[in-house]
Amino acid sequence: MVNIKELQQYAVHLLAECFATCILILIALMLVGSITGAHLNPALSISLMTIRKVKPLQCIFYIIGQILGAFLGAALVYLVYLKQFDAYDGGVRQMTGDSGTADIFFTMPSVEFNHMMSNAMKPFAFALIVIGIICGFSINAGAAINPARDLGPRLFGAFIYGWNEVFSVHNYFFWVPIIGPIIGAIVGVWLYQGFMWIVKQYGHLSISDNSDTNKTIDSKITPMQQNESFEF
User: How many helices (DSSP H) and strands (DSSP E) are in the chain?
Assistant: First the structure.
């Protein structure tokens, strides 16, 4: 019963964090999406670079800005909630265990367990996707989908918990939330490119063939009907 209550409390906090994160993503997409494309995730920036939507040098600056922004964001969270940290762990920073706080900054695995819509709707679609991923995978692995969101705060966490600990915790899990999203984004963007190529090449063949056939039939039938009406 205690575990169920703890899980329910965790789910409530998780849902609040999920919606807060998605609202911030939505705001960023709506504010700067039309200017820079709202590059918030190194995985997406690298995947777009592989299809030549982003230049390599531009991608490097994007990634540096993303990680630096995440680092500063983690520092701001730590400073704002410093008293809450002290009240929770008694001033002794621990990465894991009952008083562990490192998962606030970066992801860790659990030890227990398109043009098909308008541009105005795309930010909402992205936000809903993030909600689904976080709700579905955050309990067992922290829902790591943004390398900058993990690496930047992890670098800041190194000043709190120690450089060796933040990278060696959970059998050197740190590389998973960095490499995994990049590989996933590259695979995803190329699957999308392939799907769009198939749609553009073959998606409307049957429709165009039928329309051409109908036009030919109509052009032959219409004069006959007109002639028959004149004869009578």
Answer: 9, 0
Cβ-proximal residues to 23 (8 Å cutoff; 6+ apart), any chain: 127
Cα–Cα distance, 185 to 54 (Å, whole number): 14
Scanning the structure block, which residue is given the tokens 């709700």?
135
Tokens of 211: 């329309």
Tokens of 172: 């050197």
Q: Which residue has the higher pLDDT, 2 or 182?
A: 182
For residue 40, give the nearest of 152, 199, 200 by alpha carbon.
152
Residue with token string 């051409």: 212
Residues 18-72 pLDDT 10s = 777 778 778 888 887 777 777 888 988 998 899 888 899 999 999 999 999 889 9
Paired residues of 100 in beta bridges = 94
What is the radius of gyration, based on Cα positions, of the chain? 26
202: its two tokens: 């073959």
Spatial separation of the C-alpha atoms in residues 202 and 189, rounded to whole Å: 20
For residue 74, give the 3-state DSSP assignment.
helix
What is the Cα–Cα distance from 160 to 158, expressed in whole angstroms? 5
Rama region for 149: left / alpha / beta (φ>0; ψ in -120 to 50; rest):
alpha
SS3 127: helix
DSSP string, 197-217: HHHHHHTTHHHHHHHHHHHHH
Mean pLDDT, all residues of the chain: 76
